[in-house]
Amino acid sequence: MTPSEFQRARSPEAKRLREAAILDAARALGAEHGIRQVTLTDIAARTGMHKSALLRYFETREEIFLRLTAAGWQEWAPALSARLREIEEPGPATVARAFAATLAERGMFCDLLAQAPLNLERNVSVDAVREFKLATLAAREDIFTALDEQLPLLDRAGALDVIATAVALAGAFWQIATPGPEIAELYRSDPRLAHAVLEVEPRLTRILTATISGMTAAPAAQHLRPH
Amino acid sequence: MTPSEFQRARSPEAKRLREAAILDAARALGAEHGIRQVTLTDIAARTGMHKSALLRYFETREEIFLRLTAAGWQEWAPALSARLREIEEPGPATVARAFAATLAERGMFCDLLAQAPLNLERNVSVDAVREFKLATLAAREDIFTALDEQLPLLDRAGALDVIATAVALAGAFWQIATPGPEIAELYRSDPRLAHAVLEVEPRLTRILTATISGMTAAPAAQHLRPH
Fold it and tell me: What range(s) does the HTH tetR-type domain occupy (chains A, B) (predicted)?
């Protein structure tokens, strides 16, 4: 074994700990500055590693943030499911509010949800994408079960559409709601642009309430669905 | 006037033509390769200009693509409005289908809709963002009028939410539906990932039908809305 092979051949536990430290550093930097500002060099500096050493654990900055997106699903899904199970009068509005509240209080996760298909999945290995997709698929199962308990009128295809709508809108609205400081000042100063100021949680609640209402409406509304 | 000032001081018409040529080149390249692949150098090469000359017309590649996003709104809004006015039996499903069909047939516009708040608005001047926002605001007016004619039960706040939902979902779903070639092969080869293959138009039609149904439902459903 050469010295450099020895250095790489850490125990699985040591490797796991190092990966966790890198992910923690990326999470902290992302929360401070927003994902788009954080480079591999920043993450290496925060963990006290050389960039070349960091590259033994993750191939690209996108792989690091894709792992954080998967971790975000694994943390959000049980939190949402628990919130759904606490609802005393389940209906479109209360279920919509559970989605909107749990997403709006996770700003960095909303940022990652929008970045993943645009920027993160494009610069990683096929294996990294497979692992990411399987992790988010598994995380959805808990939400399906909680939705089925609370809204039995919503079938699985409808539940899949509700989850897809909630995460796509949370990602897009979060980006619109958090412009850079100069643009935020522009929105405040020009009354013609007041419409551009967007509050994520109330808008998401309003839209998801309507969407879930439409999906669970009495059969009278069903003929309006596309064939 | 120095020679270099003379070179820049083209007639307004010549300047407009040069800008149009740059935008056309960027549009063609974006349609061929996807927005994310196109650099300023590519655009300069396609127009037969030096990159330094191109920078007299646009500050950044993001400014060019933000202009194309505004142009996309100006082309899509009247097309959608005309399609809405042709509907013989207006209802949630037919209106949803008009949104989904006109967006799904404009792939590059969907790409731009997702890129704008994430990547394009972040690397341009405040003036460029103001101009972009005012252009998309004006383009919405035509859609408001057509929606009001066809679905009088949908108020202006509801119409604003429907448009925001349609463009946010079209942008996000288009990104998910057009992965790189390696990831597309992964989705085809691994049956556990079959759910990741997404068809933009049917899913958008289904979700918008439910959303518009919920927003225009009889007052019985109104108590479900958040207070």
Answer: 16-76
Residue of B nearest to A37 (CA): B122
Name the residue in chain B with its Cα closest to that of A34: B118
**Is A78 in the same domain as A101?**
yes
CATH number for position B51: 1.10.10.60
- Chain B residues with CB under 8 Å of A224 CB are 91-93, 209, 213
Same domain, B108 and B15: no
Q: A119 and chain B: CB distance < 8 Å anywhere?
A: yes
Q: What is the pLDDT along chain B (227 residues), one digit of tens a residue?
A: 444 444 554 688 888 999 999 999 999 999 888 888 899 999 999 999 999 999 999 999 999 999 999 999 999 999 999 999 999 999 999 999 999 999 999 999 999 999 998 889 888 999 999 999 999 999 999 999 999 999 999 999 999 999 999 999 999 999 989 888 878 888 888 888 877 778 899 999 999 999 999 999 865 444 444 44
Distance CA B75, CA B77 (A): 6
DSSP chain B: --HHHHHH---HHHHHHHHHHHHHHHHHHHHHH-GGG--HHHHHHHHT--HHHHTTT-SSHHHHHHHHHHHHHHHHHHHHHHHHHT-SS-SHHHHHHHHHHHHHT-HHHHHHHHHIIIIIGGGS-HHHHHHHHHHHHHHHHHHHHHHHHH-TTS-HHHHHHHHHHHHHHHHHHHHHHS--HHHHHHHHH-GGGGGG---HHHHHHHHHHHHHHHHH--GGGGGGS--
One domain, residues B37 and B105: no
Sort out which chain B residues have CB atoms less than 8 A from A217's CB and list them. 213-214, 217, 221
In a domain, A224, yes or no: no
Contact state of A172 with B176 under an 8 Å Cβ cutoff: no
Claim to verify: residue B125 and residue B151 sit in the same structural domain? yes
Q: Answer yes or no: are the C-beta atoms of A68 and A26 closer than 8 Å.
A: yes
Show the domain range for B14: 1-58
Confirm whether B226 is domain-assigned: no
- Provide the number of structural domains found in chain B: 2
Question: Nearest-CA distance from A130 to chain B in Å?
Answer: 8
Q: Does one domain contain both A28 and A116? A: no
Query: Shortest CB distance from A225 goes to which of B93, B175, B193?
Result: B93
- The residue among A113, A114, A97, A104 whose CA lies nearest residue A210 is A97
Closest CA to A92 of A173, A226, A207: A207
Whether the CB of B81 is below 8 Å from some CB of chain A: the reply is no
Kindly provide the ipTM of the predicted complex, given to two decimals: 0.89
